[in-house]
């Protein structure tokens, strides 16, 4: 060490800073125990005598280092300074340079035992910061690798990683191969739709709603039978539900069909009745009158019986206990009935009536079942009963013969019928013959009707010679009186002509009009009304025009009378004032047509030159509203005690008014729910009124999802949860 310092001091004159750095390096090497300090070297030497001086000299020489050239020291210092100012790129290069530097000063053989610790300390001092940065960088890389593995092997993380690009990948796949995508989705598409429908039925309905009408139309074209088979089971329930919701719509839809059907049937029946009426003055008509008097029934009933003649469709002899068919007699020219099915049905109905309806101790039997224009007559005796399927009303003669024939069958063949077990061969043919004869009673009865005895013909001729002229005169007089009354009623029903006395008479096959009217306009109007009432008659208009100055007193009285008559009309409340030919009218009406009628009625009064109308049209209103709690359709207790009674009082005061009950529920988030909630609220008010005795036909319920009248978004929300009542005239 001393030689190094001497060599440095001899060959180079270092600057002060370089000397300080060199001194620090030397101390560092000493601390690292790479070299020993000069003091320790000399102090460690033992103090020997002169005899041992030679040994000491040799030892010192052995321990001293060989001189180091100046170039080597400069290279070492330069490399050391560079290592302090510029950290090497890696720890390995730093170690190699450190080892080279150490080799300059001390051989490996002279390194102490703790050289590895010293090397670690030197490494920590020289490259410790860089190693820390390197380790930190390596740790960050390891963390990213762990995170990447977590994202790859964890399903949720992998989904979140792929999800942003999934739509683009799916679009590319669909564009490349649509058939593969279809094959993949096809097996689960039905379950997907079903699952989504269960989750959110409303959104699925809104999604497929636009395509449903077109799909149904296309399917009807492709396979109409399949559509019919699919819809048919639900048609009855759908019509029933529609009738519950809106009965008027169903009536309007079915009116053309039902109306024409009923009209056709009634037209045929009326034509048959008309034919009977036209035959009133004939022999048959006179006979009918006599029969009606003798039988104690009206002639109309006999005419109806003749319009709907009595016919036998089938005769069944049925075993009472087992319900088996003993004899089956049916018409060959009509549709054959299912005898076994009818027998079982009738036996079951008889058993039910006897077991459940009859009181204890009483003995009664079911004797007839009516359905439409047909009837089943039952006659029970012994161990069997007769069932007649007929149309029309049977005569007393037929009932008598039926019972007589049935009694013969019971007397002669009662034992065989009692033991009947379903074998028709055990039943004698006489039973069938008797029933066949009973079926022919209808034809024989008609033939008897067509046969007349000479005495009857003479009697009818004599009576007819007297009654026919009298009947014709009565009929003609009745027709004329009916025509005159009908025409006069039409004239008096017209407000403009009701105040005048007009007469109608039939003279020389003409309708003669007589009376007095103030102007030609009313005269012509009277003639037009008569022509519309009796278009097949000639009109003889003998109405006189009388120009009479109007009496102010009479005019005022007439105005007062007309005012009173008009005020009797529901919804009209007016007052009038007559001054110098001018009528001033004030008040209120419910309809615009009533205001026009009022003005027109006063204009027709003689002496009225001008009518000033200040009538206001004010429809009837009910200033009552029912309010509800959120998402509730239950009426409040206070409303049930007060408001409902007010509505009942209003309806009792106006018997010709109906009520429209409008339920409001304002919520745009769920329109279907709001529609149903509004309807439930309206029905709650409807049921409350029905319980108080109001006719259900006078109450109409509807639902709306907009704001009620007079309420906007600035008002409190509870004002929109209400039911509003709107009076309507029953004719609408």
From TrEMBL:
GO terms for cellular component: membrane. This is OmpA family protein. It comes from the Bacteria. The lineage of its organism: Bacteria, Bacillati, Cyanobacteriota, Cyanophyceae, Nostocales. CDD domains: OmpA_C-like (cd07185). Keywords: Membrane. InterPro entries: BON_dom (IPR007055), OmpA-like (IPR006665), OmpA-like_sf (IPR036737). Residues 615-732 form the OmpA-like domain. The keyword Nucleus does not apply. It holds the Pfam family OmpA.
């Amino acid at each position: 060490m001393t030689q190094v310092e001497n060599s440095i001091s001899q060959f180079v004159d270092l600057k002060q800073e370089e000397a300080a750095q060199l001194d620090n390096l030397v101390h560092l090497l000493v601390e690292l125990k790479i070299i020993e300090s000069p003091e320790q070297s000399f102090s460690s030497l033992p103090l020997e005598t002169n005899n041992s001086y030679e040994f000491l000299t040799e030892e010192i020489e052995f321990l001293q280092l060989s001189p180091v050239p100046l170039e080597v020291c400069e290279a070492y210092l330069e490399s050391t300074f560079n290592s302090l100012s510029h950290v090497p790129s890696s720890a390995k290069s730093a170690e190699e340079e450190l080892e080279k530097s150490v080799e300059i000063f001390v051989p490996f053989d002279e390194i102490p035992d703790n050289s590895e610790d010293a090397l670690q300390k030197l490494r920590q001092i020289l490259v410790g910061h860089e190693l820390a940065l390197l380790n930190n960088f390596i740790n960050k890389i390891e963390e990213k690798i762990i995170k990447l593995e977590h994202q790859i092997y964890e399903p949720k993380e992998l989904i979140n990683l792929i999800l942003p690009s999934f739509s683009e990948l799916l679009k590319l796949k669909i564009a490349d191969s649509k058939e593969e995508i279809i094959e993949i989705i096809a097996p689960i598409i039905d379950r997907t739709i079903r699952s989504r429908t269960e989750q959110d039925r409303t959104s699925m309905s809104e999604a497929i709603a636009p395509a449903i009408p077109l799909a149904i139309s296309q399917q009807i074209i492709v396979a109409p039978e399949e559509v019919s088979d699919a819809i048919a089971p639900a048609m009855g329930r759908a019509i029933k539900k529609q009738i519950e919701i809106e009965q008027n719509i169903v009536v309007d839809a079915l009116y053309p069909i039902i109306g024409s059907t009923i009209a056709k049937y009634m037209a045929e029946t009326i034509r048959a009745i008309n034919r009977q009426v036209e035959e009133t003055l004939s022999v048959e008509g006179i006979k009918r009158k006599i029969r009606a008097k003798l039988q104690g029934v009206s002639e109309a009933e006999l005419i109806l019986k003749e319009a709907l003649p009595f016919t036998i469709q089938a005769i069944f002899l049925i075993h009472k206990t087992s319900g088996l068919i003993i004899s089956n007699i049916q018409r060959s020219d009509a549709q054959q009935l299912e005898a076994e099915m009818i027998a079982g049905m009738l036996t079951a109905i008889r058993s039910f009536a006897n077991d459940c309806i009859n009181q204890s101790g009483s003995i009664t039997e079911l004797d007839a079942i009516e359905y439409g224009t047909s009837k089943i007559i039952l006659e029970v005796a012994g161990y069997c009963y007769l069932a007649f399927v007929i149309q029309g009303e049977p005569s007393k003669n037929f009932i008598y013969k039926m019972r007589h024939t049935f009694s013969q069958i019971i007397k002669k063949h009662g034992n065989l019928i009692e033991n009947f077990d379903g074998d028709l061969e055990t039943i004698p043919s006489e039973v069938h013959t008797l029933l066949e004869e009973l079926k022919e009673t209808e034809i024989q009865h008609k033939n008897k009707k067509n046969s007349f005895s000479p005495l009857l013909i003479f009697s009818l001729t004599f009576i007819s010679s007297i009654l026919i002229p009298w009947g014709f005169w009565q009929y003609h007089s009745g027709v004329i009186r009916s025509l005159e009354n009908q025409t006069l009623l039409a004239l008096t029903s017209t407000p403009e002509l009701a105040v005048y006395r007009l007469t109608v008479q039939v003279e020389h096959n003409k309708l003669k009009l007589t009376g007095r009217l103030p102007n030609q306009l009313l005269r012509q109007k009277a003639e037009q009304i008569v022509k519309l009432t009796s278009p097949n008659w000639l009109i003889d208009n003998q109405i006189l025009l009388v120009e009479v100055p109007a009496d102010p007193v009479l005019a005022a009285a007439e105005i007062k009378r007309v005012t009173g008559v008009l005020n009797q009309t529901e919804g009209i409340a007016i007052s009038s004032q007559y001054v110098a030919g001018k009528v001033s009218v004030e008040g209120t009406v419910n309809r615009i047509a009533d205001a026009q009628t009022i003005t027109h009625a006063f204009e027709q009064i003689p002496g009225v030159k001008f009518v000033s109308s200040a009538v206001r049209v004010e429809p009837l209103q009910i200033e009552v509203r029912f309010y509800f709690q959120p998402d509730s359709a239950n009426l409040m207790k206070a409303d049930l005690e007060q408001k409902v009674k007010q509505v009942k009082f209003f309806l009792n005061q106006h018997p010709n008014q109906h009520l429209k009950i409008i339920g409001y529920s304002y919520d745009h988030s769920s329109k279907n729910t709001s529609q149903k909630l509004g309807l439930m609220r309206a029905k709650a008010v409807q049921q409350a009124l029905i319980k108080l005795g109001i006719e259900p036909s006078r109450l109409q319920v509807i639902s709306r999802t907009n704001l009620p009248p007079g309420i906007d978004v600035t008002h409190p929300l509870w004002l929109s949860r209400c039911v509003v009542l709107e009076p309507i005239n029953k004719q609408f």
